[in-house]
Fold this protein.
Amino acid sequence: MKKVSLILAASVLSISSLPALAQEVKEDDDVVNVTGSIQSDILFPQADATIGAEDYPEAALTNSFAEVNVTSKHGDAGARFEYLEHPLPGFEPDYKGYGVPFFYVRGHWDKFEMTLGSFYEQFGSGFILRTYEERSLGIDNSLQGARIIAKPFNGVTLKALTGRQRRYWDWNDSWITGADVEFNIEQWIKSLGEKNTYLTLGASFVNKHEGDEELIASYDGTKRLNFPENVQAFDVRLRLQTGNWNVLAEYAQKSQDPSQGNDYIYRKGYVAMLSASYSKRGMSVLLQAKRSDNMAFRSRRTLPSMSENSSYINHLPAFTMEHTYALASRYPYATNPDGEWAYQAEVAYNFKRHTPLGGKYGTKVKANFSYVHSIAQNVRTADGVLQGLNGYYFGTDGYGSAFWRWGDSKYYQDFNVQLEKKFTKAFKLNLMYMNQFYNKTAVEGHGGMLHSNIYVAEGKYQFNNKVTLRAEAQYLDLTSGVNNEEGDCDCVYGLLELSLLPYLMFTVSDEYSIGDEIHYYNGSVTFAMGAHRLQVGYARTRAGFNCSGGVCRWVPASKGATVSYNFNF
């Protein structure tokens, strides 16, 4: 298998080097397009006892991917080669390997499409099904099987699929089968479209078929649980867009699904969401609320490690702002699969030019507030008496939970205000203040509640059309939860970035941890030409969580030279 994989890899790399591959080939009145990409991130690691960076036996660690896709009028095909034999720090042991785990063929006609092989899919907001790839998190939970998409009538889209889910270099034994239907009502009632009103109704169903296990589930070894071979989940949703308003309501439910993640309880899972937004020129408002309860849905009930992100069939988005500034993203929130109440509100306003607050070039202001809290849980004991949560009971319903009641724990809170102001044609300034509560115990398992104030200033000066200098200054003031041994302390951060269009960018930055007096420095040079992008740098990286959409991966401290190359054709 490894020899075959190496041959395929060599074929992919050699083909991608041919300039003619990116061109269109016309055969029998059909246009064939060949596209693809190469991505390689390399670290030459060095040990550093000060920050806890490990000493690796390999001279270089790399996550590398090469992908080729061929598309035409009636058929597509593609494959991806992955080389992860010596992966970057923080990826699970099972992530290691190389081969061609993703490949597909697809036929498509006027109202019908069929895919065989590997594919990604999402039903609604992903509450019962979302498969996707996120390389920075080590996630690729694609399905291998068959999918059909049909549009038999105007305003109707049908999907049906079945397959096994990828887990690193293998596929889980369970079979995932599902169907989804969406109705665009404005396609049937023309008066809605004429009034700028669009109404979408959707419904989904997913079944996981997984065989029973020879598993003694209880801690004292006395119970042999009878696992359900089929776990069903359904989802219903409504989206209404009228004028400047957009409203989405969605509800999903999952049948009994005892697993390692919920201590093998037989409680059903639920999630409900309501999201409303209003926008017009110069102004926008967003309000969101979500309640989830025991809604982790995996294609494998027992895993070697519950810390891994593999085998999730569904996705529960976090109603928290994803920050891009270094210190603002220091403590990101990961969705709690056991259950949570989550709220988010955001208001953005653009003060017009030539007004007292807008000035000559206008002023943009945005405020965001997010709050995540536990749900109320009561545990049912063997004698049927409800009591406070102190551990679940194997083989029981686990706990009861009233819909509107909160639990005792605040998981996360974030209030931030951002201001964007252009002072001259050449100079623009962004300012941000952020007040954050981060329950480190709830998210990471230890550490208590951290409370911090974060200040950010970013300036950008454009000398001419080709030369731009950008600078950042950030300060994290940890008012409670200081623990120098774990790196939870006040920090300052600075960055300078010089862009020389169209080819070069130079970046230097340093994060200084005041409590333990450690510098985390980074310097890099980025070269871009056409479809090629090459970045070379040297960095000392702090241990912490890397998150996207409420899904997080722990990244250990590292130090060394880095090389990143991307090519799209």
